[in-house]
Please model this.
Amino acid sequence: MLNDLSPDDRLRLMKFVCSFAWADLEIRDSERNFVANLVRRLDLGEDEISQVQGWLTTPPDPEEIDPQDVPPEHRKVFLDVMLQMIAADGELDPAETESFNLLSQLLA
Model:
């Protein structure tokens, strides 16, 4: 599933994940751990890891996160990972739920 993503799609996924982590305007340790585990699973390079770490410090620019850039064959993967991100901190924040619902509508 994740192995089928191209390098560009892997980085795109991480940008979406980091934007979801910022949905409640706070990055929790559990969310950082989720991101770190996902980075390892995706086998990102050093430059990509630096970008992800930057997105955990400062959220990605919303204009750079376009659901239409997600290839149709990977949309389910993106949605599944976003659900995992939302659940990572053990709390269901309304902003995260709203973001997920919007993303799922845009990817439908």
Remarks:
- Residues 7-21 form the longest helix (15 residues).
- Residues 8 and 79 are 17 Å apart (CA to CA).
- DSSP finds five helices and no strands in the chain.
- The radius of gyration is 13 Å.
